[in-house]
Amino acid sequence: MAAVYSDSPAQSRGRLFEEPESMHRSCFQRDRDRIIHSSAFRRLKHKTQVFVADEGDYYRTRLTHSIEVAQVARTIAGHMGLDTELTEAVALAHDLGHTPFGHTGEDALHALMGPYGGFDHNAQAIRIVTALERHYAEWDGLNLTWESLEGIAKHNGPVTGDLPYALADYNAVHDLELHTHASAEAQVAALSDDVAYNNHDLMDGLRAGLFSEDDLMELPIISTCFEEVDRRYPGLELIRRRHEALRRVFGVMVEDVIATSDGFLSASGAQSAQDIRELGAPVVRFSEAIWRDLTQIRSFLFARMYRAPSVMEKRAEATRIVSDLFPAFMAAPENLPSSWHPQIEAVRDDTTLARLVADYIAGMTDLYAAEIHERLLG
Asked: For the whole model, what pTM was predicted?
């Protein structure tokens, strides 16, 4: 049964470009399907989560991460009586704007784009779904509903102050009410991101040998879960022990989000989706106790995984590739693919050119960026 504060497809604010409704799918289902079929979504399979794609087939990529986030989000949203298709659409789209090489590539591109308005992967996701996906006859982008666009733009909370240009440009023609919080569905997608990466980064870090199970026994939640597995399955082989423990960690996080959020939603008195937006604070959240524990886990991952020497070596290489490609294309934009040449011919200033180059580089996969770097620069 749908909660009174869920976003109903029947009450959607619609799309920027009107189009007939489907007889078989809700407007939010169509949004989700358009995201899955987009070129940007497919490219996520070769974009870094933590480990670069060529380091092994078992590590998470941005694509597998996004699928895991969507699975968690759909489970939580279903329990809370929210619209699962809208939640899933936001979850699947939340990383579409990421550059090659993950946050390392984003940091490098943001620095290079400093004189031209910077770079922000959340804003770039909006740019992709509203402009850069060019497959439909009547519009650029995917023509998603207002609710999906709002969720992608604001899933981490209100966006105020100096807006990233990619977001400001679209918001000027289609007001996403960036000063408010997003729907409960988008808030679920955001917290599901935390649940997914905290869990799978632990698994990938263990697989990579950056730390051991003994190291994890010093951390809250995780140590308790390993102890429970050891009591129930003494002598269990390594891989099964690891999986059993970490799936319990996963369960602790999901159950905490559901219980805590149910309490906040009941106390909020919200009677509509708009009430959720106007509360002034998020209603989907972890408990304070679990949040403290997760903060400790994230500090451990930062020190032992994200800043591990082998990871830092790859980060330096990624920074060099992006930092070389940007000025190379600025100096010789004709090296962009021929399909981009009509846009190059319309360029009238350095800022427009830089943003065009940033769009191209941000869309690259890890492997393609390395290949183009080798081809252009040796």
From this structure: 0.95
